[in-house]
Amino acid sequence: MRQAFDSPAPSVPDGKAPITTAPVTTALVILCVAVFLLDVPVEPFAFVPAYLFGTTDLEGPLPVVDGWRGLVGHAFVHADSLHLVTNMAVLRLFGGRVEAALGGARFLLFFLLTAAAGALTEGWLTDDPTVPMLGASGAVSGVMGAFLLLHPRAVLRLPLLVRAPVLIPLALPVGCDLGINTALALFPPPPDLAISAIAWEAHLGGFAAGLLLTVPLRRRRVRLLDRAAVGPDLPSLRRLAGVLRPGPASDRLAVLVDAGVWVMLVVVLLRGS
Q1: Element (H, E) at 70
Q2: Positive/negative CA dihedral, 29, 31, 32, 38
Q3: What b/e string do you get for 88-113 counting C-beta neighbours within 10 Å, with b at 16 or more?
Q4: Which residue intervals of 126-220 are DSSP H helices?
Q5: Distance between CA atoms of 54 and 51, rounded to whole angstroms?
Q6: Percent of the chain with pLDDT strictly greater than 70
Q7: pLDDT by residue (tens digit) across 98-147?
Q8: pLDDT score, position 13
Q9: SS3 for the chain, per residue?
Q10: Tens of pLDDT along 234-250?
């Protein structure tokens, strides 16, 4: 948003599939939430394209002291609670499977590189290089791209009040998101609309970087374009209830951590509303 100032788990029915532990993904979510709740100033971390791409219409000093720091720093600061929660929810949904395919250290590198790629794309294509950009959307788009490349047949399982859940091919919402971002990057909305503040170009740059970086960074023996219909880490009451049943302690811990992350995001969203 622009602001002025080891291998993935197999596909099995919901409630039985183990949630990926994803320590790096969880740590990134907690870090971004902590930065927001502690009211860390966004100015030193926002990305201002003018610092790297140059401009001739600066009027006084910009509120960012280091343009290079903003290349990745912008991913850890957010404009408001809705901006934060939407980014972190998508990161938690898809990040676990991508982290499992890359490994923790390489996933962290992946996150930082896709954040930088999104910022550079925004700086290259933006009409106003003096407007600061912040938020993890570019890196999150990269995670979505990586997930789709790893699991193109993935499905979203949406449980309803019936025995059979609704299955939505993940490529459908991701494709729609990509199409919307492309359309709004090519045909920017009027500046008086709220969506004009969204860095659409950063999303596209992050998504493209995610596709490219997944190939060299993935673990050995992790296949691209896996045919299994594995899904993202959607929370469910059935999965949470399974904590009370006998089973590996690591699985129960992963479920509890996942539930804690989602509760934290809901609390942050309600706190900001």
Answers
A1: helix 70-73
A2: positive
A3: bbbbbbbbbbbbbbbbeebbbebbeb
A4: 137-150, 171-186, 200-217
A5: 6
A6: 77
A7: 999 999 999 999 999 999 999 999 988 888 888 889 999 999 999 999 99
A8: 38
A9: CECCCCCCCCCCCCCCCCCCCCHHHHHHHHHHHHHHHCCCCCCCCCECCHHHHCCCCCCCCCCCCCCCCHHHHHHHCCCCHHHHHHHHHHHHHHHHHHHHHHCHHHHHHHHHHHHHHHHHHHHHHCCCCCCCECCCHHHHHHHHHHHHHHCCCCEEEECCCCCCCEEEECHHHHHHHHHHHHHHHHCCCCCCCHHHHCCHHHHHHHHHHHHHHHHHHCCCCCCCCCCCCCCCCCCCHHHHHHHHCCCCHHHHHHHHHHHHHHHHHHHHHHHHC
A10: 766 667 666 667 666 66
| Distance from the Cα of residue 210 to its chain's centroid | 11
